[in-house]
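User: quick one, sequence for these tokens?
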């Protein structure tokens, strides 16, 4: 059974309308599909939905649910940034679910929210300018924010858990098997396991950058040991990406010992065999 609850459209930085996303999901054989554009944030950036468009987004997703009833289950969500004391999942209680993600870690050298999901050039400039290149401090802050979200404002789905590793492709910043990094991940997984939050296996890094999945395979194995539920999402930004790299994600999940994924069907979260 195929589902995807992490997708983007022209309401944010994706390509294609919401209905084109639905048509793509149908063409790729999905049983259920979730809309999850980037949520509005209280500052300017290049990729989030504008606050004034949220009402239209909610109305359009509602209409599409009616139009495609009986063909595919549709759910209204957002990928919600957790920025302490600024924005988080609690601010969007009208949704069917949300994907909670950390894209910002403190402020950059210009006093603006520091985007860790942007260009590596900009990320490395800030890393060197403010932190003297000390990636360990930044990673500890990153995972600390994730734990704060899980403990104080938990989403249904944890988005791209180890996204911070993406900049290792531009410059070798750290080894994932260093003891301090493993300790940060372990503390975060323990927090997630206690909360019962679903962690997505996010395929975007693989099909866009030829990188490992988010999270890395060794983390997925540890998640299984801790009985953390998973779902498979592509973080699609175009309709044709909705099931991109899904075979790899399912194979990786099975190899880690998973025999089920947690999906939103018939209005409730439930485990289905893989």
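Assistant:
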């Amino acid at each position: 059974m195929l589902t995807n609850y992490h997708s983007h459209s022209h309401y944010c930085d994706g390509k294609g309308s919401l209905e084109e996303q639905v048509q793509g999901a149908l063409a790729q054989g999905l049983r259920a599909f979730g809309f999850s554009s980037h949520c509005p944030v209280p500052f300017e950036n290049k990729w989030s939905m504008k606050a004034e468009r949220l009402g239209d987004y909610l109305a359009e997703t509602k209409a599409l649910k009616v139009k495609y009833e009986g063909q595919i289950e549709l759910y209204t969500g957002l990928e919600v940034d957790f920025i302490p004391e600024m924005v988080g999942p609690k601010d969007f209680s009208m949704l069917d679910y949300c994907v909670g993600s950390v894209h910002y870690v403190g402020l950059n050298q210009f006093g603006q929210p520091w985007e860790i999901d942007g260009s590596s050039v900009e990320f490395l400039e800030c890393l060197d300018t403010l932190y003297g290149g000390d990636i360990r401090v930044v990673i500890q802050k990153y995972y600390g924010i994730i734990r704060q979200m899980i403990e104080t404002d938990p989403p249904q789905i944890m988005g791209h858990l180890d996204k911070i590793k993406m900049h290792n492709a531009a410059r070798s910043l750290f080894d994932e098997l260093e003891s301090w990094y493993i300790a940060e991940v372990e503390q975060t997984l323990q927090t997630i396991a206690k909360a019962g939050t679903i962690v997505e296996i996010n395929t975007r890094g693989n099909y866009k950058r030829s990188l490992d999945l988010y999270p890395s395979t060794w983390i997925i194995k540890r998640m299984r040991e801790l009985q953390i539920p998973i779902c498979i999402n592509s973080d699609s930004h175009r309709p044709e990406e909705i099931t991109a790299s899904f075979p790899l994600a399912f194979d990786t999940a099975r190899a880690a010992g998973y025999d089920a994924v947690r999906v939103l069907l018939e209005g409730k979260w439930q485990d289905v065999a893989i």
